[in-house]
C-alpha cells in the first residue's frame, strides 16, 4: 500500500460537507457564543424557580432549544477533527468543545437536580397538560433516575468534571492517531508502508499469505510498545465507572451501566453466553471451510479476514455503490429512500482514506440536519455492506429526529445497531437475487458472513466477553494491568475458537484496537442488534409490507419505548434465546449454501 494522501490531497467531492451545519468557522464561533448566553440566561431564569406547572413547561421549551443548538455545535467541532487530526483549527475546535461541554454541564446541572426534587405528582401534572405532553418521555426519565441522583452540589461537581473524568476516549484517540507509529515490512525486496488504517483496511484481509502474516507481525510488534499506556488509560476508565456505580448505589458496575440501557443483567448475559456456546461452532465451521478453500491445514487469526474465494476480489466505484443502494432499498418506500438520495446529493458521506483520519466507520446525525457518515473506502464490494450499515443508522436517526424532540431520550444502545445490521441483510439479499453465477453467489455469501456476521457477532462478541471479564474483575477489586488484560483477551479467543483457529502471537493485544471499551457496555449490543436485524432484514427483503410499516414506525419511535419493546413492536421477541438461535440457524444455512455451490 502506498503512502496515504494528506487531507488536502483527497477529492473534495468524496468528502463530507460540514458547511451544511455552519458556513464557516466564524458562524460556528458565533453559535458557540450564542449558546453560552442561552445557558447563562437559563440558569439565571430558572434556578430555584421550578415551582409550578407553567414555569416548568416554559423551562422545558427553552431547554429543548438549548439542546438543539448544542447538538449542531458538537457535530461541527468534533467531525472535522475525526477526518484530519493534523489540522490545527480542527484540533482546537475539538479541545475547546471539551471545555465548552464541561461549562455547559455545570450551568445546566441544576436543572435535572431540581426537576428530580419536584414531587412525582407535580411532574405527572406537567405531562397531563397539552403543552407538557410532548415532554412526557423526558419527564419519565427524570422520574426513573430519581432514586440514583446524588445531592445537587455533588451532581453539579460531577457535571463540571465530566470531561476530565471520562477523558479516556479522547486520550485513546490521541495515542492511536497521533503518537502511534508502525514498523514497515518487506517482502521479496518490496517495502510496504504500515499504519493503523493500512493494516485494518488492506493488509489484514489481503489475499496474499506473505503480506497478511508479515503485516500482522509488524503491526502487533509495534502495537505492543503502547500496551501499558493504553492499559492504564482503559483501567482508569473502568475504575471511574465503578466509583460512579458505587456513588449511585449499585453493587456492580455492570448493573449501573445496564440501567442506562434499560436492559436486565439476564438479557445481557443471555446474548454473550448463548452466542459463545452456540454460534462459536458455526464460525469454527466457517474457519475450517476457509482453510480448506486456501489449502491451509488450519486458518490462523492472521488469515481469518482474507477473502474466502480465490482470485481477484470484486471492486466497485463509489457511484456504482450508491446506485446499488438506491436499487436495493426501493423496497423500503419513498420516505426512507429519500434519505439516501439526500445523503448522496448533499455530501453527507466522507469516503477517502487519508493520513490522521479515524479508522473504521461511523454515523453521526445532527438534529433535523445532515447525518454524517465516515468511511475508509477500499473499493471492495464489501464496502457496499459497510455503507448500507451506516445509512441504516442515518435513516434511523433522521426519521427519529423528524418525529421526536431533541430532549426525547435516544433509543437504548441495546437497539441502536438493529437498523444498521438490518440494512446489511437487505443489501445482501438483494445482491443474491440478481442474475449471477454460482461462483459469484458463493463469493457474495462468504463476503456477507465475513463482513456482517463475523464483524458484528464475532469481533464485537469477543470484545463483549473480554469487557465482561474486566468489569467483573473491577467489581472484585482485582489488580488490573496490561498483562491481565492480555490474558483476559487470550482466554476469550481460546474459549471461542476451541482450537479451530490458530491464535497468533499479538492477538492478545486486540483490545487495543477498538474505542468501544470507552463507551460503556457497547460491544454486546452489536449482537443484539444483528439478531433483530436478521429477522427484519429477511422479511423486508421479501417485500413484506407489514414488516416494512412496522419497521418504519419503530425507527421513528426513538427512545419512547424500551429496547425490548422496540423489538417486540417490530415482531421480534428478545426476551428468550429463540431469536438468537434463529439468527445462528440462518448463518448455518448460509454455510450450507457455500458448500453446495462449491
TrEMBL record:
What does the cofactor field's note say? Binds 1 zinc ion.
Broad class of enzyme this protein falls into: hydrolase
What Enzyme Commission number does this protein have?
3.4.24.-
Pfam families found in the cross-reference section = Peptidase_M3 (PF01432), Peptidase_M3_N (PF08439)
Specify whether Lipoprotein is a keyword of the entry.
Answer: no
Signal peptide residues are none
Provide the alphabetized UniProt keywords.
Hydrolase, Metal-binding, Metalloprotease, Protease, Zinc
User: Where does the Oligopeptidase F N-terminal domain lie?
Assistant: 114-182
Concerning Gene3D superfamilies, the annotation shows: Oligoendopeptidase f, C-terminal domain (1.10.1370.20), Oligopeptidase f, N-terminal domain (1.20.140.70)
Q: Which cofactor does it need?
A: Zn(2+)
The answer on whether this UniProt entry bears the keyword DNA-binding reads no
**Which top-level group of life is the source organism from?**
Bacteria
Gene Ontology MF annotations? metal ion binding; metalloendopeptidase activity
Query: Its GO biological process terms?
Result: proteolysis
Q: In this protein, which residues make up the domain named Peptidase M3A/M3B catalytic?
A: 207-584
Report the CDD domains cross-referenced here: M3B_PepF (cd09609)
NCBIfam families linked: pepF
Function as written in the Swiss-Prot or TrEMBL entry: Has oligopeptidase activity and degrades a variety of small bioactive peptides.
Write out the similarity annotation. Answer: Belongs to the peptidase M3B family.
- Protein name in the entry: Oligopeptidase F
Organism of derivation: Falseniella ignava
